[in-house]
Amino acid sequence: MTPALLVGYLAALLGTVCWIPQAWKAWSTRDTSGISLLSNMLFLTTVSLWLLYGLLVADWPIIIANTFAVLAVLTIVAAKLKYK
Amino acid sequence: MTPALLVGYLAALLGTVCWIPQAWKAWSTRDTSGISLLSNMLFLTTVSLWLLYGLLVADWPIIIANTFAVLAVLTIVAAKLKYK
After folding, report:
1. Which residues of chain A lie closer than 8 angstroms to B22, CB-CB?
2. For range A31-56, the mean pLDDT
3. Cα(B76)–Cα(B17) distance, rounded to whole angstroms?
4. Tell me, what's the ipTM?
5. Structural domains of chain B, ranges and CATH numbers in brackets
6. Residues of A at the B interface (Cβ-Cβ below 8 Å)?
7. What pTM was estimated for this model as a whole?
8. Is the CB of A45 less than 8 angstroms away from the CB of B17?
């Protein structure tokens, strides 16, 4: 594997898990006042579009990574809507 | 342009601007209590790795999109560190 590919896979993996602490924090503390609903709705749209892109070009790494990202960000948006 | 490419460019564009409202909110309200520092540090690492990936494969759209993303997320992390 080339260094570039290694960096790319690492970025894809990290991008999948990085929002889990935020989702956990929002649901466990119910403190979502500092979270921007607009940013998170736009980011939800972003990862949904990446998921659609992955489906259109049949790219499994993009499909898998963005399925997890959509779920994590949906969890954050749901917490924001419930505890705002 | 194919529909897939259009979706991909739209996702890339939206991913670049989506964190501007969060950065603005954090600095204007100084309310960052609900923001997860861990998630934002991991996401900062993620977009930094994508930027490095873009540089390694000499892909300008990836370089440009992730340069803006790094700046926006740095601004959020800085607000969280200052107003936590």
Report:
1. 35-36, 38-40
2. 96
3. 13
4. 0.90
5. 3-82 (1.20.1280.290)
6. 3-4, 7-8, 10-11, 14-15, 17-22, 24-26, 29, 31-36, 38-40, 42-43, 45-47, 49-50, 52-53, 56-57
7. 0.92
8. no
